[in-house]
Structure formats: C-alpha cells, structure tokens
Write a structure and sequence with these properties.
Elements lengths: L6 E2 L3 H4 L1 H9 L5 E2 L5 H18 L1
Amino acid sequence: MTRSKPMTDNGACYKSNAFSRRCKRLRLKHVRTKPYTPKTNGKAERFIQTGLREWA
C-alpha cells in the first residue's frame, strides 16, 4: 500500500506541530517544497486550493 504524500509550501500553518501530528495520525508523509521554486510552489498552491474546495 502506498502512502499519500501531501505537498505544501513552507507556510507557518504547515510547519505547526498540530499539522505534523495530524499527518502522523493519518499515516501521511508530508513533503514541503523548496523555497523560491515557482514550479513546485504552484503544485503546492493547487493542492491547497483543491483541498479547501473539497473539504469546505
């Protein structure tokens, strides 16, 4: 079974202990983008938008 790997930017909310604990509880491997890389930051922003739209 493959684990999901949510990719996010380096925002404070994604560096928080609460987010880290939630990822561990859901058995997710959190992947952060490198700073100042528009290609991966765009992927992360799109993931966040999709998650917000589906969760809301």
